[in-house]
From TrEMBL:
<keyword id="KW-0472">Membrane</keyword>
<keyword id="KW-0769">Symport</keyword>
<dbReference type="GO" id="GO:0034755">
    <property type="term" value="P:iron ion transmembrane transport"/>
</dbReference>
<dbReference type="InterPro" id="IPR001046">
    <property type="entry name" value="NRAMP_fam"/>
</dbReference>
<keyword id="KW-0406">Ion transport</keyword>
<feature type="transmembrane region" description="Helical">
    <location>
        <begin position="109"/>
        <end position="132"/>
    </location>
</feature>
<keyword id="KW-0812">Transmembrane</keyword>
<feature type="transmembrane region" description="Helical">
    <location>
        <begin position="32"/>
        <end position="50"/>
    </location>
</feature>
<feature type="transmembrane region" description="Helical">
    <location>
        <begin position="385"/>
        <end position="407"/>
    </location>
</feature>
<keyword id="KW-1003">Cell membrane</keyword>
<keyword id="KW-0813">Transport</keyword>
<dbReference type="GO" id="GO:0046872">
    <property type="term" value="F:metal ion binding"/>
</dbReference>
<feature type="transmembrane region" description="Helical">
    <location>
        <begin position="62"/>
        <end position="80"/>
    </location>
</feature>
<dbReference type="GO" id="GO:0015086">
    <property type="term" value="F:cadmium ion transmembrane transporter activity"/>
</dbReference>
<dbReference type="GO" id="GO:0015293">
    <property type="term" value="F:symporter activity"/>
</dbReference>
<feature type="transmembrane region" description="Helical">
    <location>
        <begin position="264"/>
        <end position="285"/>
    </location>
</feature>
<feature type="transmembrane region" description="Helical">
    <location>
        <begin position="210"/>
        <end position="231"/>
    </location>
</feature>
Length: 447
């Protein structure tokens, strides 16, 4: 595929493309601050409600052993997001646009449908997380809370009127709110530091125990999310670097990668805190009945080690952080939906309609599940975990086009993949696909 084959009438996410000032001749500090932001929006996807449920269940049921999975997933995410940065800046196209031109028309539609399903799966996690948070904080029934989340899209549209930087600032404030809450909660829980450190050492139990592997793949799916690959390749183009100058592109790639790695490091810390909190408070006890949002909320509230007043504070902060996380992820999920639709099928519809359709489709299975199971909380949380495993299964359909595109010299020029990146990225794709097949076989054997 040569670069001249990719033709689009408009830029990727054209309402924000090339809209944020970036001066390649300014000081290092100014250049860094200019590019600080897109990584925040990407990092949100690495700490959404799906991460919460998988990490906390992993800690409650299997202790600290899955910290290794969080570490590997986070390092892998840094590499993959850096590849999307290079793709977006070097080529001027997003991953959806490029993928379409790698495939024939029928196969292109298959990849588009899988990408849309992955975004819907991501949205399901946000809907469930936000609805549960509203129930915990205000006693709003789950089905009403799920419907209320449809209105989130209008909040995003309102914020975008004030500029893309405002979105980044709001997301950043919510991220650091979540971080502060969980640092405080883990501090109060007083986990064993030695056991935490040992958790970063690989354990054979992750593969041999079906339950641990299921949660591990859920963590992978919740950490390396397909929609983030499409999102990042687009929003890095929001800066006003010189599109025709190779040195300007190189600087943009450098600072965008730094931004991405910093924000993903914060996401890594938050995910570790989530797992550590689940392990410190619940592992070794009646862990089979713990790990869900409601279980954790009530367990925090009644935890003997915390006392009534401190337990009440921690449970409330937990619900506040959950709501903030769900709202954050809403912003990035709706943006990714627009990028995928425009990139794959070159269909541009009004932003409010695009986002409303995506969210409405995600709300439908949640409401159906609530009706069928009469508002059963446990079923909601299991649906959320399944959505994360689906993301892991869908991930290769985004990773393979990303790998092929970033290794294409016609498209990338001097910014194509180095040999070690090709080796590592293909290894990730093969290992992840093999683990998925193993999980599916195990699941059918146990039916």
């Amino acid at each position: 595929m040569s670069k001249r084959q990719v033709k689009y009438d408009t830029d990727s996410l054209d309402e924000v493309n090339n809209s944020v000032s970036f001066n390649s001749n300014s000081s290092i500090k100014q250049k860094f601050l200019s590019f600080l932001g897109p990584g925040l929006l990407v990092a949100v996807g690495y700490m959404d409600p799906g991460n919460w449920i998988t990490s906390m269940q992993g800690g409650a049921k299997y202790g600290y052993i899955l910290l290794f999975i969080i570490l590997v997933s986070s390092l892998s995410a840094m590499l993959l997001q850096s590849m999307t940065v290079r793709l977006g800046i070097a080529s001027g196209y997003d991953l959806a646009q490029v993928t379409k031109h790698y495939l024939n028309k029928p196969l292109g539609y298959v990849f588009w449908i899988i990408a849309e399903l992955a975004i819907i799966a991501t949205d399901i996690a946000e809907v469930i997380g936000s609805a549960i948070a509203l129930d915990l904080l205000f006693g709003i029934p789950l089905i009403v809370g799920a419907i209320i989340t449809v209105l989130d899209v209008f909040i995003l549209l309102f914020i975008m009127k004030f500029g893309f930087r405002k979105i980044e600032a709001i997301v950043g404030a919510l991220i650091f709110t979540v971080l502060a809450i969980f640092i405080f909660e883990v501090y109060i829980a007083s986990p064993d530091v030695t056991r935490i450190l040992n958790g970063f050492i690989p354990s054979s139990k992750i593969i041999t125990e079906h339950g641990a592997l299921y949660i591990a793949l859920g963590i992978v799916g919740a950490t390396i999310m397909p929609h983030n690959l499409y999102l990042h390749s687009s929003i890095v183009q929001s800066r006003t670097y010189d599109r025709k100058d190779e040195d300007s592109k190189a600087q943009a790639i450098k600072y965008a990668t730094i931004d991405s790695n910093i924000q993903l490091s914060i996401a890594f810390v938050i995910n570790c805190l989530l797992l550590v909190l689940g392990a410190a408070l619940f592992f070794g006890g009646n862990s089979e009945s713990l790990g869900g949002f409601y279980d954790l909320y009530h367990a925090l509230k009644t935890q003997p080690l915390l006392g009534a007043s401190l337990g009440g504070l921690m449970s409330t902060l937990f619900a506040v952080a959950l709501l903030a996380s769900g709202q954050n992820s809403t912003i990035t999920g709706t943006l990714a939906g627009q990028i995928v639709m425009e990139g794959f099928i070159n269909l541009k519809i009004p932003n409010w309609l695009n986002r409303l359709i995506t969210r409405a489709i995600a709300v439908i299975p949640v409401i159906v599940c609530l009706i069928i199971f009469h508002g059963n909380e446990a079923m909601m949380e299991q649906l959320l975990v399944f959505s994360q495993v689906f993301l892991s299964i869908a991930l290769p359909f985004s990773l393979i086009p990303l790998q092929l595109a970033t290794n294409n010299s016609d498209l990338m020029g001097r910014f194509k993949n180095k040999l070690w990146i090709n080796i590592v990225s293909w290894t990730l794709i093969v290992i992840l696909s093999a683990l998925n097949i193993h999980l599916i076989i195990q699941t059918f054997q146990e039916l």
